[in-house]
Amino acid sequence: LYFFSYSASSGAPILYVEDLFVEELYRSYGLGTALVSNLARLAIEKECCRMEGHAFTWNKKSIEFYEFLGARPK
What we know:
Blueprint: E1 2-7, E2 12-17, H1 31-45, E3 50-53, H2 60-68
Parallel strand pairs: 2-3
Antiparallel strand pairs: 1-2
């Protein structure tokens, strides 16, 4: 699930990833990476200034996945 928001300071849209979930049985096949890659292409196409999302601190696997992709906390 994703939606677009807007950054007044940048004057450009933001692609916000609300929920990204891959069932545990299907992890390690590159599906999450493919989903994020497609969202990144969409963000570029729509001229977004960035992608944003949220991961709870207790969700270590999610945080590790996003860090593996190069995401940084804001």
